[in-house]
Amino acid sequence: MAESETDVEFLRGELTRKLSAGENVVIQSERAAVLRNVTCPKAQYHFVVLPKEEIANVLALKREHLPLLDHMMDLANDVIKQQQLSPNDFRIGFKIDAFMNRLNMHVISKDFYSSSMRRIQHWNTFNSDLFITFQAIYALLYVKGSVEPMPAEQVEQLLHATPVHCNQCSFYTENFGQLKRHLYIHWRERESERLSKMGVANLSQRMGQMQINKGAEQPVHAKQPAKKKWYVNKKKNSQSSSSSPKGGANTKLI
Ligand SMILES: [Zn+2]
């Protein structure tokens, strides 16, 4: 019994250990870090933002933490931008009854399509009052200065509540397996739309690049004065063939 309690405590400390070891850290600053949730992501994109200051959970937040929350949201936007996605594609906020022993803000894509989304509790954790959006937490702290805990019975009731409603259309069901299959259809459609847009964007980019290259070649020929004597052109051509193209130094953005 004692051993299993120790095991639970060990699991609850996972995020703190990862933060200390720099594991799965995608972006970080002096005050907070974004970690990719690789253990049990509940959607295609699932990150958690952790403050470096030790804060146990949302109930430990005070009004004085508002600037920290602003900073955590900045990091959330940075990681979303890094994925070339829009903030509208994400649900950002906190679990009121979090398992981990360290405050973590979820940045999770709204597809909720993942093999780790196995139980109705997983769904309800992110899609009921058990999940408090960043804006709601911010408003509570601003107005009241703290967040009230939710009674254990209400947490339990919300965790197992049915029917479950799709977050992307009016579909609802009592059967979680049906919802999972339904979410897959949404994801497949969105993914195919995204890949199609990417394909068009890549094609446009390549065509644009071809135009630039074409444009870059033209001045070389244009600079060759037709009226000059043939030996001048010959000399210039031999020089240009050995020179490096302009703009060869690539700037790597980090
Ligand atoms: Zn739907």
UniProtKB/TrEMBL annotation:
Ranges annotated as biased composition (Basic residues): 224-237
Q: Name one Pfam family in it.
A: DcpS_C
Region Disordered, annotated ranges:
215-254
> SUPFAM superfamilies recorded for this chain?
HIT-like
Ranges where the Aprataxin C2HE/C2H2/C2HC zinc finger domain occurs: 127-189
Signal peptide location = none
Q: Which InterPro entries match?
A: HIT-like_sf (IPR036265), Znf-C2HE (IPR032566)
Could you identify this protein by its name?
A: Aprataxin-like protein
**Protein species of origin:** Drosophila arizonae (Fruit fly)
